[in-house]
Write a structure and sequence with these properties.
Blueprint (H helix, E strand, L loop, with lengths): L3 E2 L4 E2 L4 E2 L4 E2 L4 E2 L4 E2 L4 E2 L4 E2 L4 E2 L4 E2 L4 E2 L3 E3 L4 E2 L4 E2 L17 E3 L4 E2 L4 E2 L4 E2 L4 E2 L4 E2 L7 E4 L4 E5 L14 E3 L5 E5 L3 E4 L5
């Protein structure tokens, strides 16, 4: 299936839209932007020309993605989430190059959260609604608040992980995890 482009969406010539992607009304994808397969870009989404989106990415209404943002596969970006790409902006002054902000595979950004530039949100991490992210978010971490702070470890399925005394956890979905010394966790191979 080719991409669906709503009649009131604007996709500039030179923008790449993957198979099965849906671009809804009043969305604008600028020339040079790359959007993967099976993505969903909801109403009033703006994607600047140096943005890269992976496959199966959902971008909800009212989200603007600026140059420097790289989004891996399976990422969810909630309504009104804000991304910045200049820590010291001034009118009519543009940096030669924008810092890279990376959203790793499977992470979720809550509604109205703000992500500052030059940061990484880890794999399967979750940023709570309204949070202001001022530093990197580890894989599988849930962060909330302003500034965003660690709340708990979560599974790929988004359930809370409860670690035992030997620093392992098993989620109800069957996935296992090990806590590492560097304030990180590692997903163990999944038994099928």
């Amino acid at each position: 299936m080719d991409a669906f482009i709503h009649p009131q969406a604007l996709v500039d010539p030179g923008a790449i839209i993957g198979k099965g992607t849906r671009v809804w009304a009043f969305a604008h994808v600028v020339r040079g932007a790359s959007v993967g397969e099976a993505c969903n870009l909801c109403d009033h989404v703006f994607i600047e020309g140096k943005v890269v989106l992976g496959n199966r990415v959902t971008v909800k209404c009212g989200v603007y993605l600026w140059d420097g943002l790289v989004v891996e596969d399976d990422v969810f970006i909630g309504p009104g989430a804000g991304f910045t790409n200049d820590l010291r902006p001034r009118s009519q002054q543009h940096p030669a190059e924008y810092p890279r902000t990376l959203l790793r595979q499977g992470c979720s950004i809550g509604a109205n959260a703000t992500i500052l530039p030059n940061l990484t949100v880890g794999r399967w991490a979750m940023v709570g609604a309204g949070a202001v992210v001022t530093r990197d978010v580890p894989d599988h971490a849930l962060v909330v608040g302003n500034p965003a702070r660690f709340r708990q470890w979560i599974c790929r399925c988004a359930r809370e992980l409860k670690f035992n005394t030997v620093d392992t956890a098993r989620c109800d979905c069957g996935r296992g995890y090990r806590r590492l010394r560097e304030n990180r966790i590692k997903e163990e191979p999944h038994a099928t």
